[in-house]
Amino acid sequence: MLLNMKNSFISKSEEETKEIAEALAEGLRGDEVILLYGSLASGKTVFVKGLARGMGINESLVSSPTFTIMNIYSGKGLLFHIDLYRVEDKKEIELLGVEDFLGMGIVAVEWGEKAEGLPWSTRIIKVKIKEEENGERKIEIKRLN
Amino acid sequence: MIILGIETSCDETAAAVVKDGDILSDIVRSQVNLFEEYGGVVPEISSRRHLELIHPIVKLSLKRAGITLGNIDGIAATKKPGLIGSLLVGYSYAKALSYGLRKPLVGIDHLHAHIYSAEIGKKFQFPLLGLVVSGGHTAAFLVNDLDFKVVARTRDDAAGEAFDKVAKKLGLGYPGGPVIEKLADGGNSEAFNFSQARFKDGSLDFSYSGLKSQAVRISERENFNDEKLRDFLASFQKAIVTQLLNRLDALVKIYKPEAVSITGGVSQNQHLRISAEDYARKAGLKLYLPEKKYCGDNAAMIAYLGEKMLGAGYKDDLFSTPFPRTMASKGEKQFK
Questions:
Q1: Which of A41, B61, B119, B282 would staple B27 via disulfide (CB 3.0–4.6 Å)?
Q2: Domain B2-115+295-311 classification at class level
Q3: Which of B320, B311, B291, B253 is nearest to B119 (CA)?
Q4: Where exactly are the structural domains of chain B?
Q5: A108: exposed, middle or buried (C-beta count within 10 Å: 0-12, 13-18, 19+)?
Q6: What's the pLDDT at A96?
Q7: Prior bond to B81 cis, omega within 30?
Q8: Is B82 exposed, middle or buried (CB count within 10 Å of its CB: 0-12, 13-18, 19+)?
Q9: pLDDT at residue number B333
Q10: What is the pTM of this model?
Q11: How confident is the model over B166-216, as pLDDT tens digits?
């Protein structure tokens, strides 16, 4: 699967969402930040499970980090799985110390809109998941910088 | 032994003192007014907040227990799982105390401590099947004394998280579990049908994201009046409890424990407590539920389990470090 500047996919199931994420993971350099956008229950954590699979991490270990805010997994490189659902203030995000992990692995951020504009000097990929009327998911992947 | 326990794995900054299994003090940040006790403003930021609060909370726990640092025989601190920055604050503080006082330190698994919260004031029978159900975690362990084996865990959301997210979606308030429990009271729990997750591989792991998604869909479709909302919440609550007890029953059939326990924040839920008592009675199992004050995150459970572990010879050195998850997979740095 070729991932150019912008790519759009339709996923008909959780498994297809994971496959799209897996393909994305396989083409990564290993230090990107992936900002995930999508409403509640759109499949953001499912997407991260797919990233994990693509990085050789047992995807069944990947669970929602809503409460603990960040989980760290290691496979072919490290996966930092961050969930900003409970975090309201941009200053709080800065104080999470995410910059400490930049460059050390893939950083996947659920509720990515909350992290927009933070001075994270690394490659950023935006993944937008939209649920369609028929239950399918439209997944848009866009590389910035 | 007198043990100081420290908990900073998530939101709560907590410290407690335990002596020979008795809780002498139990301070949880959200339950004390530090402004009154110490003055000053409390920042609302995770790791930074723990850093500001850890020292006053520990001091308060010693004061309430009527002891000084010199009376302590050992220190127990949460080592995993949790937010790494938050864990580091409590664990590093504990390491420094251990070094300064020349007293032993033991790192505690937060989930193991939740299980033992149900033993405070009682005596466990083993083997025990321990469910931990909270906002951040949902897992089951087979426990023999201080040996803990994970036998099931959530593959996606925790049960308490499903409560919280659905409550927030409906604008009902926080924390979601208690809010939903209150509003569901008297509702018809058969009014809405939820289908439970099954894994193709036959795993008994938990899964709450499916129930959460179904609840979100229903709430978007329906126009709730008070009565319908009550029925919906009663049905949703029942679906969450049903999955917990169905999985518990399936695990009991496999592992044949003498006793079961249900702990963690969600174990405050009265519907769960009553259903669990009913189940245990029918299955002829001993059931342990924690006192309500020990359901949520606290340090009493950390100190309580810490005393047992130190007594059994477990110890951590000053080079030990916290870990964000409960289990390391193959090849990852292992928890010592």
A1: B61
A2: alpha beta
A3: B291
A4: 2-115+295-311, 123-289
A5: buried
A6: 79
A7: yes
A8: buried
A9: 47
A10: 0.93
A11: 999 999 988 899 999 999 999 999 999 999 988 888 899 999 999 999 999
**CB nearest B83 (choices: A40, A57, A68):** A68
Beta carbons of B211 and B236 less than 8 angstroms apart: yes
Band of the pLDDT at B328, cuts 50, 70, 90?
A: low
Closest to B76 measured CA to CA, from B294, B323, B311, B334? B311
CA distances from B170 to A129, B190, B205, B331 (A): 22, 20, 28, 43
Using an 8 Å CB-CB cutoff, list chain A residues near B46: 69, 92, 95-96
Report the residue of chain B nearest A77, measured CA to CA: B332
Judged by CB atoms within 8 Å, which residues 186-225 of B form the interface with A? 203, 205, 209, 212-213, 216-217
- Rounded Cα distance, B139 and A57, in Å: 20
Helix (H, G, I), strand (E, B) or coil at B289: coil
Shortest Cα distance, chain B CAs vs residue A48, angstroms:
11
A74: chain B residues, CB-CB within 8 Å: 329, 331-332
State pLDDT tens for residues A4-60: 556 999 999 999 999 999 999 999 999 999 999 999 999 999 999 999 999 999 999
Other CB atoms within a 10 A radius of the CB of residue B57 amount to 28
In this predicted model, what pLDDT tens digit does every residue of B46-100 receive, in sequence order?
A: 678 899 899 999 999 999 999 999 999 999 999 999 988 899 999 999 999 999 9
Give strand pairing partners of B294.
none
Q: Which amino acid is at B247?
A: R
Integer angstrom CA distances of residue B236 from B70, B175, B192, B329: 51, 16, 8, 33
Cβ atoms within 10 Å of A123's Cβ, excluding its own: 14
ipTM for this prediction: 0.89
Instruction: Verify whether the Cβ–Cβ distance B325 to A66 is below 8 Å.
Output: no
- Chain B residues whose CB is inside 8 A of the A57 CB are 329
Token digits for A43?
Answer: 């499949």
CB B44 within 8 A of CB A87: no
CA atoms within 13 A on the CB side of B190: 0
Third-level CATH fold of B123-289: Nucleotidyltransferase; domain 5 (3.30.420)
Residues paired with A143 in a beta bridge: A125
Q: Alpha-carbon distance B272 to B246, whole Å?
A: 12
Q: Are A40 and A17 in contact (CB under 8 A)?
A: no
- Name the one residue in this structure whose structure tokens are 């339709």: A10
